């Protein structure tokens, strides 16, 4: 496949702001290289208060318009009133919805949550990880979810993660607001990306989630209260685990610039 502008990238995350916090640098990096990028968000409805914030964040990252599955948040019923919670939705239905986005966008790479549920073990993060694993495989098989469009097989799937040695300042900050901190062994990380050149775009995307920045416990609010030096140390490196090898050699997530 001819990819003159680098591999296309689709992020799949549970909530608005996850994309900016976990892979904002890589999304901005790929966009700057001319690659196609997009994000699917599993919870919150298109007419919810956080949808415009997500739109502004994706604009800062160059990741197009929001793609919302529209499920309700496990812990916030205002996310999508009248819709089932993501954790309660039929698994096959949720997978089919995501398969449709994968086949529509046709990404080379998919990036999502890790199996632990991203530091704090949020149930929506865990469920989104499970759905993404199934959807990436199903998207390439024509007999699965034929209603979702022609098959497309991404070359690689990565989980954004946090190694034990890389939690650093985040541990006391999160524990200070009563959150549990879950990290993976360092050996679980296959890819570390220095996103310093794209840190400004990443921070602009995080700040776009204004309702989270204004609150005490969410990570955007915690980061906004930090000295700039500490904040930059936290957001300048992104860690990933490659979960499927794909047909290509090398590491397609790490662009050379």
Protein described:
The chain is built from 9 helices and 7 strands. It is α/β, with parallel strands linked by helices and 257 residues long. The protein has helices spanning 18-32, 51-61, 91-105, 123-139, 170-175, 199-208, 210-213, 219-224, 228-235; strands spanning 9-13, 37-43, 67-71, 109-113, 156-161, 191-194, 237-244. Helix 4 links the parallel strand 4 and strand 5 (156-161). It is globular. The protein has a 7-stranded mixed beta sheet, sandwiched between helices. 36% of the residues lie in helices and 16% in strands.
What structural class is derived from the secondary structure elements?
alpha/beta
Kindly, what is the distance between the CA atoms of the first and last residues, rounded to a whole number of angstroms? 20 Å
Count of helical stretches: 9
- Low-confidence blocks of residues: none
Annotation keywords:
single chain; 257 residues; alpha/beta; 7-stranded mixed β-sheet; 16% strand
Question: What's the topology here?
Answer:
Blueprint: E1 9-13, H1 18-32, E2 37-43, H2 51-61, E3 67-71, H3 91-105, E4 109-113, H4 123-139, E5 156-161, H5 170-175, E6 191-194, H6 199-208, H7 210-213, H8 219-224, H9 228-235, E7 237-244
Parallel strand pairs: 1-2, 1-4, 2-3, 4-5
Antiparallel strand pairs: 5-7, 6-7
């Amino acid at each position: 496949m001819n990819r003159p502008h680098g591999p296309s990238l689709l992020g799949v995350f549970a909530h608005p702001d996850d994309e900016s916090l976990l892979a904002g640098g890589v999304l901005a990096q790929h966009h700057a290289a001319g690659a196609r990028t997009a994000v699917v968000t599993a919870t919150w409805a298109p007419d919810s208060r956080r949808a415009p914030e997500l739109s502004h964040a994706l604009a800062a990252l160059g990741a197009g318009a929001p793609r919302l599955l529209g499920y309700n948040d496990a812990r916030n019923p205002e996310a999508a009133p009248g819709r089932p919670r993501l954790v309660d939705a039929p698994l096959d239905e949720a997978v089919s919805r995501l398969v449709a986005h994968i086949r529509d966008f046709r990404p080379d790479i998919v990036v999502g949550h890790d199996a632990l549920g991203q530091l704090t073990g949020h149930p929506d993060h865990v469920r989104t990880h499970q759905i993404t694993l199934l959807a990436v495989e199903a998207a390439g098989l024509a007999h699965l979810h034929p209603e979702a469009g022609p098959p497309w097989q991404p070359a690689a799937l990565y989980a954004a993660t946090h190694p034990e040695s890389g939690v650093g300042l985040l541990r006391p900050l999160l524990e200070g607001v009563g959150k549990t901190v879950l990290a993976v062994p360092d050996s679980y990380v296959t890819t570390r990306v220095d996103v310093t050149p794209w840190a400004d775009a990443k921070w602009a995307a995080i700040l776009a989630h204004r309702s989270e920045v204004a609150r005490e416990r969410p990570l955007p609010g915690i980061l906004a209260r930090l000295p700039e030096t500490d904040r930059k140390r936290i957001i300048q490196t992104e860690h990933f685990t490659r979960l499927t090898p794909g047909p290509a050699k090398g590491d397609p997530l790490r662009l050379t610039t």
